[in-house]
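A.,

Following up on our hallway conversation. C-alpha cells first:
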C-alpha cells in the first residue's frame, strides 16, 4: 500500500525556503509563508534562527568570489531568519517562480520579490535553485529530528 501511495505522488521534491532578516524585520513572515501554504505545498520544517557567519558562508559558498559576498553574509546574519523546508510536486522550480527574479525590480508583480521588495541586497526571501541544492540546503539548515513527518489531510483536494 505504501509503495502504491509513493508511486502515485508524482515527482515530490523538497526545497529550502528562507525568509531573510529584512523580511522578518518588516513583518512579512506571515505573508510569505501564506504564499506557499495557499499554493498547496506541504511544510516539513520551520524555525526562527540567528544564522552564524560560518553557516551563511557555507550556504552561499558558490558566490564566494563575488564582490558582494561579504555584504551578503553580513545581510543574512544581521538578524533572525525563518528557515523552512517545503515539499511538493515540482516544488523547486515552482518556488523559484513564486519568489521571482533575484533583482526585485525585475521580478514580476504577483511574485514575492515583485510585490514586496525593491533591491537585490534586500530581496526578502531565498529559495533553492535545484533539486540537488534543495536536499543540500535542507540538510544544512535543519538538524536530525527538526523536520516533521506528517500527513496533510487536505492532500486529496490538492492532488488527484
Ligand atoms: P537567488 O537568491 O535569486 O538565487 P543568487 O544569484 O543565488 O540569487 O544570489 C544569492 C543572493 O545574493 C541574492 O538573493 C541576493 O540577496 C544576493 N545578491 C545577488 N546578486 C547581488 C548583487 O549584485 N548585489 C548584491 N547582492 C546580490
Ligand atoms: Mg541562488
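Then the amino acids I'd put at each of the 160 positions:
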Amino acid at each position: 500500500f505504501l509503495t502504491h501511495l509513493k508511486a502515485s505522488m508524482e515527482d515530490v521534491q523538497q526545497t529550502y525556503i528562507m525568509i531573510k532578516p529584512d523580511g522578518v524585520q518588516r513583518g512579512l513572515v506571515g505573508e510569505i509563508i501564506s504564499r506557499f501554504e495557499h499554493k498547496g505545498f506541504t511544510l516539513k520544517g520551520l524555525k526562527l534562527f540567528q544564522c552564524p557567519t560560518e553557516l551563511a558562508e557555507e550556504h552561499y559558498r558558490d558566490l564566494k568570489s563575488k564582490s558582494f559576498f561579504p555584504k551578503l553574509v553580513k545581510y543574512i546574519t544581521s538578524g533572525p531568519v525563518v528557515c523552512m523546508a517545503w515539499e511538493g510536486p515540482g516544488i523547486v522550480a515552482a518556488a523559484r517562480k513564486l519568489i521571482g527574479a533575484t533583482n526585485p525590480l525585475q521580478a514580476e508583480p504577483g511574485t514575492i520579490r515583485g510585490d514586496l521588495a525593491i533591491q537585490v541586497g534586500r530581496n526578502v526571501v531565498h529559495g533553492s535553485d535545484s533539486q540537488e541544492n534543495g536536499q543540500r540546503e535542507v540538510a544544512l539548515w535543519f538538524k536530525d529530528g527538526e523536520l516533521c513527518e506528517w500527513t496533510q489531510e487536505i492532500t486529496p483536494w490538492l492532488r488527484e
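Residues 129 surround magnesium ion (ligand 2) (CB under 6 Å). Curious whether your intuition agrees with the design.

B.
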